[in-house]
Amino acid sequence: MAEHNLDAHLFINGRWEEGNTGPQPNIDPATGAAVGVVTLADADQVQAALAAASRAFPVWSALTGQARGAILKKASLLLAERIEEVAHGLLLESGKTRADAVGELRRTIETLAWNGEEAGRISGKVHQGVVPGSTRLSLPTPLGVVVAITPWNFPAVLVGRKLGAALAAGCTVVLKASEFTPYSARAIVQTLADAGLPEGVVNLVFGDPAAVSRQLLASPEVKAVSFTGSTQVGKQLAALAAPNLIRPIFELGGHAPVIVWSDADVEKVVQLTAPAKFGSAGQSCVAPTRYLAHPAVHDALVKALVAKARTYTLGHGRDEGTTLGSVAHGGRVAAFLQLVEDAVAKGAVLETGGKRVDRPGFFVEPTVLSAVSRDADILVEEPFGPVATVQSVESVDEAVALANATPYSFAAYVFTDSLRVRDELVRRLNASNIGINQTAPSLPDVALGGLGNSGYGYEGGTEGVLAYMQLRLVSQSAL
């Protein structure tokens, strides 16, 4: 496929414009070369985006849910028509393989379509009154202007998830997308505009993350903020949102344990978890990372993971045969190497990988570590890379203690056919997304949210749309 323009600018009040702060390169992490530019907003342009969203809110929120949903469903169809073009741009700026890029866009298409359907299903409830002849109405009402802040690791589906739910609810949005993957956001916003989205309903800005976030969350017009990213940044955004009591919807860090019990089929465990572990180079908050294996299967699991890790072909996503792409940028390489080196220094066995690949771009080898010491940083810090650790656990109590030993409480995975073990682990694990004998993807039709340092609020399902609405209680009687 021929190269195409990956430049990305601001979208304010229905028009594209260059950011006044100037350009920065859009880097292909698989080569280290620029594939376009992204231009950054100044404070006046951020304010213009807020003003546009505020002006558009009365008109957009007054439309019926079916009318809003029709635009989302049309955008879904348009994105499906453009999937090859958009996938090519996504893989160029993100380092993903073609399979990962296409898979992400299919989830984005599904997300926009589902929220388009849900827009027409959201309705109030009628309750009996407390005195004869009276009724009480629970009426879902759009909150207002929403700030959505999205990361680089899934730059299409996370934009689609946040925009889909907020627009279905009747809110307008200022989207602050990642400067590392600006084209993906540009493509989705353009698709919505082409589907007939009125001007001002969605506004896209890029810029200095800290400065733009401070300005957006200082606005009294903003009623909710949706953010996916690190726990550290999430806490900073929560502090910025607090003075105006802006409703937070946060999906933050994760460090998912994988408990592999004595009766598990090790080959099947690796077959099922490897795509989630090594897909998108392991840069996912629900990626299985800390394998906790019963002694009966520990050695076989290590062997199977090592064998799987060595099957990957590293390369550019556009190259035939590539099965593992790059990490996002040089900072991810440095963090990955530091965690691996710390683990080995504290006694871990480097079973395979553990090094930067000697080629252009930001590539690290798929890595497996065994006998990892409990004081190793990699067991506490989210590695966000293609690395798996394996530890031996003698009992359910030990498995639970190690699984719950991080500050994160997002995803966890359990492999066993023992109902007793399964039920006890589900009851005791600090995790909001648990997969039993399978992975646990977040899909648009069911609510999912983090616990503790993994966030709060919900995305997906009816609850994900209601997150951008207020349930007003109207009690009425005849005079």
Q: What would you say about this model in short?
A:
By secondary structure, the chain is α/β, with parallel strands linked by helices. The chain has helices spanning 43-62, 65-81, 83-94, 98-119, 157-169, 182-194, 209-217, 231-241, 266-278, 295-309, 330-345, 396-403, 419-428, 461-466, and strands at residues 10-12, 15-17, 22-28, 33-40, 125-128, 135-142, 145-149, 172-176, 202-205, 222-228, 247-251, 256-260, 288-293, 349-352, 367-370, 387-392, 408-409, 411-415, 433-436, 451-452, 455-456, 469-476.
What does this structure look like?
- With 479 residues, the chain is an alpha/beta fold.
- Strand 8 (172-176), helix 6 (182-194) and strand 9 form a beta-alpha-beta unit.
- Strands 14-15-16-13-12-18-19 form a seven-stranded mixed sheet, sandwiched between helices. Strands 9-8-7-10-11-21 form a six-stranded mixed sheet, with helices on both faces.
- The protein is built from 14 helices and 22 strands.
- The chain has helices spanning 43-62, 65-81, 83-94, 98-119, 157-169, 182-194, 209-217, 231-241, 266-278, 295-309, 330-345, 396-403, 419-428, 461-466; strands at 10-12, 15-17, 22-28, 33-40, 125-128, 135-142, 145-149, 172-176, 202-205, 222-228, 247-251, 256-260, 288-293, 349-352, 367-370, 387-392, 408-409, 411-415, 433-436, 451-452, 455-456, 469-476.
- It is globular.
- The mean pLDDT is 96.
- This is Aldehyde dehydrogenase family protein.
- Pfam families: Aldedh (PF00171).
- InterPro entries: Ald_DH/histidinol_DH, Ald_DH_C, Ald_DH_CS_CYS, Ald_DH_N, Aldehyde_DH_dom, Aldehyde_DH_Superfamily.
- Residues 16-473 form the Aldehyde dehydrogenase domain.
